[in-house]
Amino acid sequence: xxxxxxxxxLTDLQKVRxxxxxxxxxxxxxxxxxxxxxxxxxxxxxxxxxVWKEDCDCKEGKMRAKLNLDGTPRKHKRYFLEWAL
Length: 85
Ligand SMILES: [Zn+2]
What we know:
It is a single chain. It is elongated and about 40 Å long. Helix 1 packs across helix 2. Helix content is 34%, strand content 18%. It has three helices and three strands, in the order H-E-H-E-H-E. The chain has helices spanning 12-23, 36-46, 59-64, and strands at residues 25-27, 51-56, 76-81. The longest helix is centred in the first third of the chain and has 12 residues, at 12-23. By secondary structure, it is α+β, with helices and mostly antiparallel strands. The model has no long low-confidence stretch (mean pLDDT 88).
């Protein structure tokens, strides 16, 4: 973990990791983290976490998602640790 400590603040990577470990899952549009998808990629690649994804239909995410041309919210993903299944 010391790899990720930066200015004594939680990096986005650490935030994603701690949410995954505490709650078992994180929405791709979680407002407290920038670019969740990239953090997940890093965690899988360098920390070898087993992270799965599926379509997420949380209300907050739908409100934050970009819109399709027809005005409906774009689909987004949620990520979860394998053990949380
Ligand atoms: Zn969501």
